[in-house]
Specification:
This protein is an alpha+beta fold. The protein has 1 helix and 4 strands, in the order ββαββ. Strands 1-2-3-4 form a 4-stranded antiparallel sheet. Strand 3 and strand 4 form a beta hairpin. About 10% of the residues are buried.
Length: about 70
Amino acid sequence: MQHRSTSHLDFPDASCVDCGNRYLRRIPGRGFLQNKVLAFLGFFPWECPICRQVGYFRKQGGDGGQG
């Protein structure tokens, strides 16, 4: 059985807009917009580990993929 960190999640309905990778990793927000405004609206930054493109998704991560 392969162990995968909860900060790297497979999104069945979301993928990197540049390369199509479905395994994204949660990154910390930077600045007021990402930490306060987007987080309040329920959007969190995720990064593709292959091409480093950042996308914003409603999945927060860090809780085993449940939210």
